[in-house]
């Protein structure tokens, strides 16, 4: 049985439990998302030198009667006296759930069991996670801070209570530790003030110490903590009565898997170095909940592809653009790199994570793009955690989305880290005291916005009436995106001719464009109005489709699935095939023409349309 050890307020004063909660601030993200981000980052930072990978697991369980008995009688003694929490009440709840956050392949929570003891090897992770408040890490390229990151575990718990179980090494020996903790309100007992922080373990003359060794292993087994294999180190944190945010347990586990995808994906991508990707799993009552593939959650795969093109030296697509973000004075320095890529708008996956788009009071979705087009830059630095999806201009064509990734240069990682709040979900220059660092941060954010605005913030004006060349029409039709200057096999569109008063030519006008999924295919559709030349009874149209290289080049060979699917005028279909076709429109009246091309949806389609007076001209 563990002893209850409430923290007495020192004579010199100290941090109250209420102040402990304020360390986290007011994150804009859902608490379960913050939990995934912070605990996963802490686990990643705790990997030992030379480790190939880390395993990060989440397990949501309904508490059995046996577990509830152990919690009530062996762990949380005197729960009724823990002011400011619902601990005593939730332990009697028939629907009590626990959420266990685990890692393996880490060092575990190493270091001395007390905060005042100096570690001979500099490791104080047990004290920082279990005892200290707001103790930041100092290692380079780390994301979490144990003092801040652990706070979210208490916030998520409706009882503000957790149980910590860790296997680690201390003074050259493997050791198992177990302790429970809760954060409540200040209270008075026996004429003394108490901070509102509580532990259950071994009372070391007022200092909370963990149960260790065989006793700890036996208690962990009765609690149903995930086991350690021979020689395995790591940590389990059991969150008592997690607040699922109005979600059912099934919806909550789905939300957790989706949060892993949308916020940890840079850690899940294969790396160029010898470190393997983060291995994640989610379970619900012991049943594995699959983590979906990137490609099944549009537009996530586009951010992943941009990251691989930008950081990992992958062969970039022709529509991918990379540019350095630089500081010129006092000397030229590359602060990071920005990569952006456009793509045809993709249909979103239907995910039951508790969000109802028709109910404003429903929980938020895990995906930032459930109800909107992607027009964002994922901000990253050394820890490879998505800091934020920074919004930019929406692509002028509604059939287009774009994704970007900015990766800060490692030598400036500390500057970006200092601009982050405790939840690491933004870069705020105003929170940085150093003037030079503040200017660097402002320049980076400003230059990112300038770069994406240059690419998508404006749209070219439509061609003037009478300009019917391929270039003029193609720039306006379909979901054309300006990519890299003509590369590969792209052919240049014909220049816009200067209309002559004596030259009677047909006129073309863009009506609109869409992208749809039809029979599993991406179908790009462009709608144009064709007006015959004066005095002409027919109009000949030459129609080609390709992949856009820039504003005047296209290459059909880049997408083997690309082909004309349908061309119709005023509801009448024409026989078309391949990537080139010619049709003749009969009559002297304006006709509406619909062009359709099937394609992979991975790149941007460009239409090449040329109109001339057809057979039967009257002049």
Automatic annotation (TrEMBL):
Annotated region (Disordered), positions in chain: 351-371
The name this protein goes by in its record: ATP-binding protein
Species this chain originates from: Arthrobacter humicola
Taxonomic lineage: Bacteria, Bacillati, Actinomycetota, Actinomycetes, Micrococcales
């Amino acid at each position: 049985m563990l002893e209850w050890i409430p923290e007495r307020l020192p004579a010199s004063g100290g941090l109250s439990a209420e102040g402990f909660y304020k360390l986290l601030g007011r994150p804009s993200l859902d608490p379960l998302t913050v939990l995934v981000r912070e605990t996963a980052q802490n686990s990643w930072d705790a990997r030992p030198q030379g480790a190939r990978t880390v395993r990060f697991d989440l397990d949501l369980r309904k508490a059995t009667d046996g577990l509830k008995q152990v919690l009530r009688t062996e762990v949380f003694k005197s729960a009724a006296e823990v002011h400011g929490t619902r601990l005593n009440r939730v332990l009697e709840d028939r629907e009590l759930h626990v959420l266990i956050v685990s890692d393996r392949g880490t060092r575990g929570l190493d270091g001395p069991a007390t905060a005042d003891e100096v570690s001979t090897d500099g490791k104080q992770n047990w004290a920082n996670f279990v005892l200290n408040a707001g103790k930041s890490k100092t290692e380079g390229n780390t994301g979490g801070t144990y003092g801040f990151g652990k706070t979210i575990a208490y916030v998520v718990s409706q009882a503000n209570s957790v149980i910590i179980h860790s296997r680690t090494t201390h003074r050259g020996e493997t050791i198992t530790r177990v302790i429970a903790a809760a954060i409540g309100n200040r209270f008075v007992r026996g004429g003394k003030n108490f901070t509102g922080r509580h532990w259950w373990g071994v009372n070391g003359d007022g200092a909370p110490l963990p149960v260790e060794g065989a006793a700890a292993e036996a208690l962990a087994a009765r609690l149903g903590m995930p086991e350690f294999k021979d020689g395995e180190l790591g940590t389990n944190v059991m969150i008592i009565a997690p607040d699922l945010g109005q979600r059912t347990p099934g919806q909550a586990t789905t939300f957790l898997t989706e949060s892993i995808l949308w916020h940890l994906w840079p850690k899940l991508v294969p790396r160029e170095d010898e470190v393997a990707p983060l291995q994640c799993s989610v379970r619900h009552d012991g049943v594995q909940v699959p983590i979906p593939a990137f490609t099944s959650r549009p537009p996530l795969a586009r951010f992943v592809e941009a990251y691989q093109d930008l950081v990992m030296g992958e062969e970039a697509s022709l529509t991918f653009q990379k540019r350095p973000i630089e500081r010129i004075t006092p000397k030229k320095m590359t602060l990071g790199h920005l990569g952006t890529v456009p793509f045809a708008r993709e249909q979103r996956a239907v995910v039951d994570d508790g969000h109802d788009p028709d109910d404003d009071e429903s929980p938020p979705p895990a995906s930032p793009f459930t109800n909107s087009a992607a027009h964002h830059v994922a901000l990253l630095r050394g820890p490879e955690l998505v800091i934020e999806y920074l919004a930019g201009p929406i692509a002028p064509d509604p059939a287009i989305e774009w994704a970007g990734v900015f990766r800060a240069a490692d030598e400036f990682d500390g500057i970006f880290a200092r601009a982050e709040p405790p939840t690491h979900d933004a870069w705020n220059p105003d929170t940085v005291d150093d003037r030079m660092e503040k200017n660097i941060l402002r320049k980076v954010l400003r230059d990112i916005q300038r770069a994406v605005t240059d690419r998508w913030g404006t749209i070219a004006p439509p061609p003037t009436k009478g300009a019917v060349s391929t270039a003029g029409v193609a720039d306006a039709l379909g979901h054309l995106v300006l990519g890299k200057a003509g590369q590969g096999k792209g052919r240049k569109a014909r220049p816009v001719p200067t209309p002559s008063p004596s030259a009677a030519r047909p006129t073309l006008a863009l009506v609109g464009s869409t992208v749809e999924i039809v029979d599993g295919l991406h179908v790009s559709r462009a709608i144009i109005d064709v007006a015959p030349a004066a005095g002409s009874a027919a109009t000949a149209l030459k129609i080609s489709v390709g992949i856009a290289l820039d504003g005047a080049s296209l290459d059909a060979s880049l997408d083997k699935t690309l082909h004309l699917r349908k061309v119709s005028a005023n509801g009448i279909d024409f026989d078309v095939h391949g990537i080139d076709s010619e049709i003749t429109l009969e009559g002297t009246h304006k006709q509406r023409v619909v062009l359709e091309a099937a394609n992979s949806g991975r790149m941007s389609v460009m239409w090449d349309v040329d109109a001339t007076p057809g057979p039967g001209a009257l002049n």
